[in-house]
Amino acid sequence: MNEHRSLTVAGASFSPYTLVLLLASFPLSWFLVTYLRLSATPTLLLPAAFLIFLAQQRGFREFFAQKKHLVWYLFFSVLLALCLVFSRHIQLDLTYVQGIADGNAFTPLTAVDAVAILVLIYLSCLFLICLFALLPRRSATQKQPDSRPVTGIQTSQIKWMFALAAVLVLAWLPYFLVYYPGLIYGDSMNSVSQAMHVSPYSNHFPLFYTLFVELCLKIGIALADITLGCAIYTIFQMISLGLLLAYLLCWLYNKGISKPVCAFFLLMFCVVRCFPQHAVSMWKDPIFSAALMFYGLKLFDFLVSEGALAAKRSFLIQTLAAIVVICLSRNNGLYIVAFCLVFLFAIALWRKALRSYRRVLVLHLASILCILVLTGPVYDALQIGKDDIESFGIPLQQLARTVAYEGNISEEDLAYLDQLLPLESWQELYKPGLVDSIKWDTSFDTAYFTETKGQFMAVWFRTLLKNPIRYIEAWCLSTYGYWSPTLWELNDYSDNIVAGNPYVLDSWWIDLGIEQTNLTGNDQLMSVFSLSTPMPASGLLTWLTMFVALYAFVRGGNRYCLLLAPAIGNFGTLLIASPSAYWPRYALVYLYMLPVLLVFPKLVDSLSTVSHAVPHNRRNKRQ
């Protein structure tokens, strides 16, 4: 009987089932290594095959124990497989080359890719089954320390928050002194020019951000000069970011995160260069991203309190402040808050808690409606210029790629596109990773585009039906930096700051009197406190976010993904209307939320094994 159940190979006995798994591991390893964009050499293939063999053995044993989670594994794996396959076809060295003469930035998809998608889904599901089988669950006997509040921070902790903020600001101070009055970019100068009334107000650079810049400049001019005004802006931003990140550290401690871990995160915020670089940058992204992080913490606390925080005025004021900053500091902020509102409403329906959630839902809805009125009819009445092109960047890129590669477009639609921009220019100007070369070209008829946006979208849709592959290629090339986990080169990308042109004052079209000075007097410090530094690739951080969200769904804490909703909402807006295929500052919220992402599984486990009620904390005063 045993002879039929096993085979002997080189003296070792294998069941046919085991032998099939072993043999299958080798071709599967080629797909895995190749679509991870690694070299398919024996050095990598053999360990990969061994890992796959072990995963198949363990995965099939655990399959029935975890089959109720398979739908989540499958959803995650399908998205990951598509991203891995599309990433393999992107030629990074061509994505910012203007025109198409030098080659195609996206190599053609083949039948092998279809097989690869199935293989990668299979492998991803196997690895997830094995991973969740190995991960320990938090014991129900491990309770949150009673001395720490479940939500917010205690009044007694405010002094620690200010102390931690002071540490952060002092750690960032060398960058401020070396690049006084702060890093000023092309985008900064557009806001400064409007603030100084040498250019008309326009909401392309959000008006309320510009008005805040104007306030800082006026204070500086009243006290000394415009340079001091820029310094006041930078100092305010440094202090604000310091306080928000200090709040995050106190918040983590109250969630049961140990002091050494919190100290590590403090050290990270102090010494990793990207944090001081953004702290002294006159960009809207740092405050916007930190507000997204703070907003996520408030939403999470609201869920943990089972809606009880809705009765607290301080909570409502802080949440409203976060919403206002998010919506008025970047034009995509409104859509992110709307996304979070839908998520929160779905949770309220699912938990049959509309009554206890009512105040916060109304707060969100009223905020969105007021901001729509403000940025719509009110701005129109005040004749504030609006950005009619920025939101159409990816459709422009898709049409440009179709025209450049002579896709199937009707004569009528070609005539419309020719009116927007001469047809020969579409091919000459097309840059796969950046739409600016088209939308800011002097030949592009912005006024005609504004008048015919409906017709533009009709042309876009008709062309989509005829050229879906070109559209997929164009979308991938316009957004890859935010979703690809395997474009490893992006982890070495060090031009996040330099790409903004921090030396623009030397070439700006008008001299407004701003003078950049190294207050230390030591130019060698400019190399010590460099502006060029690598950052973790945003695509990797996206998938870290997706994984911890999957963890929450598998562990029964899916509603706590609301903490991640602001970051995911920001990611969604980049997929729809990113102006550049990769610029880490647009995904800066990931870096501010990195401590949360790393401890999120612990938070989910602790909250899914203990009571959500917080009676012992309600007597604590919280901020």
How would you describe the overall organization of this protein?
There is one protein chain. Residues 610-623 have low confidence and may be disordered. The chain has 27 helices and 2 strands. Helix 9 (226-254) packs antiparallel against helix 10 (259-271) and helix 9 packs parallel to helix 12 (285-304). The chain is globular, with a radius of gyration of 27 Å. Strand 1 (7-9) and strand 2 (12-14) form a beta hairpin. The chain has a two-stranded antiparallel ribbon with strand order 1-2. It has 623 residues and is mainly α. The chain has helices at 2-5, 16-35, 42-62, 70-88, 111-134, 158-178, 186-195, 207-223, 226-254, 259-271, 274-279, 285-304, 313-329, 333-350, 354-381, 393-404, 411-420, 423-429, 436-439, 446-451, 453-466, 468-483, 525-528, 538-554, 565-577, 588-592, 594-609, and strands at residues 7-9, 12-14.
Write the layout of secondary structure elements.
Blueprint: H1 2-5, E1 7-9, E2 12-14, H2 16-35, H3 42-62, H4 70-88, H5 111-134, H6 158-178, H7 186-195, H8 207-223, H9 226-254, H10 259-271, H11 274-279, H12 285-304, H13 313-329, H14 333-350, H15 354-381, H16 393-404, H17 411-420, H18 423-429, H19 436-439, H20 446-451, H21 453-466, H22 468-483, H23 525-528, H24 538-554, H25 565-577, H26 588-592, H27 594-609
Antiparallel strand pairs: 1-2
Helix pairs in contact: 2-3, 2-5, 3-5, 4-5, 4-24, 6-9, 6-10, 7-8, 8-9, 9-10, 9-12, 12-13, 13-14, 13-15, 14-15, 14-25, 16-18, 16-21, 16-22, 22-24, 24-27
